[in-house]
Specification:
mainly alpha; two-stranded antiparallel sheet; globular
């Protein structure tokens, strides 16, 4: 179930730059699931996000929190974008 008016899961030890990178990626996941995104831009933002969150365990935790808050799965969104070869993709 997709929710409105929620906050993004952020970590207190992140720098301002890391928070911006994470928020931009979360916004891309939302756009993918609602209006669609440019595949290359989405994957670039995902790579930036992975630099902020290199730990698989932390990635999974943030994905669970994000899905609980928003209704969107980061994992499923990334998986589907990677599988699709089109320039513009939508979930």
């Amino acid at each position: 179930m997709v929710k409105e008016n929620y906050s993004y899961p952020l970590l207190p030890d992140w720098s301002t730059e890391e928070i911006i990178i994470a928020c931009e990626f979360y916004a891309e996941v939302e756009k993918y699931n609602t209006n669609g995104v440019n595949r290359e831009e989405f994957l670039d933002k995902y790579q930036d996000f992975l630099k902020v969150v290199p730990s698989k365990m932390l990635q999974k935790r943030l994905d669970r929190e994000y899905e609980k808050l928003s209704g969107y799965s980061i994992y499923q969104s990334v998986k589907k974008v990677k599988e699709n070869e089109k320039k513009f993709v939508k979930g």
